Amino acid sequence: MRVIAGEYKSHRLSALPGMKTRPTSDRLRETLFNVLAGGDPSALSGTVWLDLFAGTGAVGIEALSRGARHVIFVDSGKTAVKVIRENLKSLGIRGGFDIVESDMRRSLRQLDSSGTIADYIFIDPPYADSDAYTQTIEFLSQSQILKENSVVIAEHDKRFDPGDLFESLRRTRILKQGDSTLSFYRLS
Fold it and tell me: Which residues contact 142 (CB under 8 A, 6 or more apart)?
């Protein structure tokens, strides 16, 4: 696993031990960021990201590498948080991020009440936890975390459909690659 592009291009990232956590593949991350940048390498400069169920932190680190101003990594696992810290440290990233080690519901409530506003929210819970998708996207659809142009991206198994509409969030695009799918949501 490595950083695909930007300031930290080609640097290797540590993964979590075992098979419990499934990091977003290099190929899928490359596709995601190419779609979001739309051919403009500076398109993500100055953006704010939430990397929810962050695991290794690979998506948020990729965002930082491509110019994101700030990334908030959220994961409830102590081992995951340790790996995220190690990955950031190994790249020499000392600022522009926060790491939240907490249950997702509590984290989202805190972020919402603190006035956090994100341009991009990446959601990648364990594929088998369908409730995590529903609860997270439903919360975001009613929160103040999103602004008019915010994009919510859910990575999920190709055999699972998280749904098209959550209150004010509507799926606008589906991108399939291998066993994984990315669903893109925007405020309607």
Answer: 167, 168
pLDDT tens track for 15-48: 877 545 567 788 899 999 999 998 888 899 999 9
Provide the residue ranges of all domains of the chain, joining segments of one domain with +.
Answer: 26-187
Q: Is the dihedral of CA 141, 42, 30, 4 positive or negative?
A: negative
Q: How far is CA 101 from CA 81, 104, 153, in A?
A: 7, 9, 21
Q: Write out residues in the chain with pLDDT < 50, as ranges.
A: 19
Residue 7's nearest CA partner among 72, 92, 87, 73 is 92
Name residues whose C-beta falls within 8 Å of residue 74's C-beta, 6 or more positions apart in sequence. 50, 51, 52, 53, 54, 100, 102, 104, 107
Provide CATH code, domain 26-187: 3.40.50.150
Contact call for residues 121 and 89 (beta carbons, < 8 A): no
